[in-house]
């Protein structure tokens, strides 16, 4: 499809996109009962990686369209998929994802412009001068095709080595163009689409370590010299050998303090049951605690198609059933419960809300209070979750019965479970700051 024809086709769907956006907004106003609508209520997006080859599968597409507000093409925008021969671009698979996303009112993250992997063989055979030209032509060709249609681009991906050195990774770009190739890629990208957010993306940078320090120093240097970088992506692939770091939120915050947005770009957590759910809660809580964390993307819709499927790392199982991790994420986002779950106002069930206030504060600690308010029907019991920043600990709690899993407290009534319609009660707790003054995150209230 030619560029002009493509633009006309996009213009023709503008009404559909606007209608979808209005529908989503109305749905969110009624009840934040999906991942995307709950995240929107927190001022963030909740996205997923998408493969074009699965868009013909009804359950896959239905889950995608219902739950997510952003998509990232899993492989379809990488260099080998979009420019297999020098100067010969092909966008068929990527176009399918972008067209579908925009027809559903979703944002699109572009992934990825410059990366050492999934390169066609001709790239590695070029000399330095030709490689520089090819890199810039590739950025211009890909971004030009989607100009105005991509929310954020991973401009450079995984340019630093693992381990303790903080050195740059060997690649055709690093080896032939030197350290300056990253800056050049960002400057070229800004000129190609000034409206798009430009991100650096990497893995094993989730906590403070030599690799994340190297990325931090690069971003700090870029910001000081006016190099156009808007965001940093943290892939956040976790398992038992690489758990959610205790300083995850603090690491996100220090990057945000440089003046860039932070995004969780490829989230998956191996495991199952309550342990997996607790880890997902930690990640969501960390993002919500950092004002410049603009959104989260899980790396796939269903465990079946995950790149680490044997680890069952996603929010939906192979039959597209919601897992405990899904419920935990929705609750952490302040959602009203999944389809058919208690707390969804659409199913006629009783409901409640939970709001947090800091009632006292001193140098080493504070008192917090969560107010539970019944909805339009009386309730006989309620449950609320409180996720604490990693360093903080609760020394006492009153007017509620807590259970703890890591940083997450699930609180149920002690004597105050029964509430008339519109009535309120509260529970309180004392927290030792241990160096962190951040506020806890209060999840959804569920009632019976």
Radius of gyration: 23 Å
Question: What spatial order of strands do you see in the largest sheet?
Answer: 1-2-3-4-5-6-8-9
**SS content category:** alpha/beta
Residue ranges: pLDDT <50 for 5 or more in a row?
A: 1-5, 11-31, 337-349
Q: Biggest sheet, in brief?
A: 8 strands, parallel, barrel
* Apparent shape: globular
Q: What is the tally of beta strands?
A: 17
Strand residue percentage: 15-25%
Number of helices: 14
* N-end to C-end Cα span: 55 Å
Average pLDDT score = 89
Which range best describes the helical content: under 10%, 10-25%, 25-40%, 40-55%, 55-70% or over 70%?
Answer: 25-40%
Give an overview in words:
This protein is of the alpha/beta class. Helices cover 34% and strands 25% of the residues. The protein contains 14 helices and 17 strands. The strands form three sheets. An eight-stranded parallel barrel has the order 1-2-3-4-5-6-8-9, surrounded by six helices. It has a four-stranded antiparallel beta sheet with strand order 10-11-16-13, with no helix packed on it. Helix 2 packs across helix 3 (35-41) and helix 12 (248-256) packs parallel to helix 13 (273-289). It is globular. It starts with a helix and ends with a strand.
């Amino acid at each position: 499809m030619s560029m002009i024809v493509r633009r006309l086709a996009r213009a023709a769907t503008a009404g559909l996109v606007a209608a979808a956006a209005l529908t989503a907004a109305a749905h969110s106003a009624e009840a934040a009962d999906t991942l995307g609508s709950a995240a929107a209520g927190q001022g963030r997006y909740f996205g997923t990686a998408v493969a074009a080859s699965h868009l013909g599968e009804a359950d896959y597409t239905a889950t995608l369209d219902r739950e997510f507000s952003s998509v990232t093409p899993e492989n379809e925008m990488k260099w080998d998929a979009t420019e297999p021969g020098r100067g010969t671009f092909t966008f068929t698979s990527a176009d399918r994802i972008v067209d579908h996303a925009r027809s559903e009112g979703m944002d699109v993250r572009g992934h990825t412009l410059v990366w050492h992997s999934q390169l066609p063989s001709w790239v590695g055979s070029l000399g330095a001068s030709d490689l520089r030209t090819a890199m810039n032509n590739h950025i211009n060709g890909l971004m030009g095709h989607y100009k105005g249609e991509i929310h954020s681009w991973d401009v450079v991906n995984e340019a630093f080595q693992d381990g303790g050195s903080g050195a740059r990774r060997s690649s055709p770009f690093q080896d032939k163009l030197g350290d300056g190739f990253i800056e050049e890629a960002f400057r070229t990208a800004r000129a190609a689409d000034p409206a798009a957010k430009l991100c650096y993306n990497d893995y094993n940078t989730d906590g403070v370590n030599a690799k994340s320090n190297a990325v931090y120093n690069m971003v700090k240097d870029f910001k000081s010299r006016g190099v156009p970088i808007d965001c940093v992506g943290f892939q956040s692939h976790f398992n038992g050998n690489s758990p959610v770091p205790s300083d995850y939120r603090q690491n996100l915050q220090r990057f945000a303090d440089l003046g860039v947005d932070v995004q969780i770009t490829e989230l998956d957590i191996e495991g199952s049951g309550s342990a997996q759910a607790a880890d997902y809660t930690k990640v969501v809580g960390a993002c919500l605690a950092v004002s410049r964390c603009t959104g989260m993307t899980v790396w796939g819709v269903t465990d079946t198609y995950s790149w680490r499927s044997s680890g069952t790392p996603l929010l939906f199982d192979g039959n597209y059933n919601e897992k405990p991790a899904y419920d935990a994420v929705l609750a952490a986002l302040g959602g009203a419960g999944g389809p058919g779950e208690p707390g969804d106002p659409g199913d006629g069930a009783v409901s409640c809300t939970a709001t947090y206030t800091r009632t006292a504060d001193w140098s080493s600690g504070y008192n917090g209070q969560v107010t539970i308010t019944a909805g339009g029907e009386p309730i006989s019991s309620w449950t609320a979750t409180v996720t604490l920043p990693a360093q903080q600990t609760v020394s006492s709690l009153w007017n509620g019965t807590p259970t703890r899993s890591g940083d997450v407290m699930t609180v149920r009534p002690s004597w105050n479970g029964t509430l008339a319609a519109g009535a309120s009660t509260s529970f309180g707790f004392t927290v030792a700051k241990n160096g962190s003054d951040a506020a806890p995150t209060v999840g959804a209230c569920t009632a019976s």
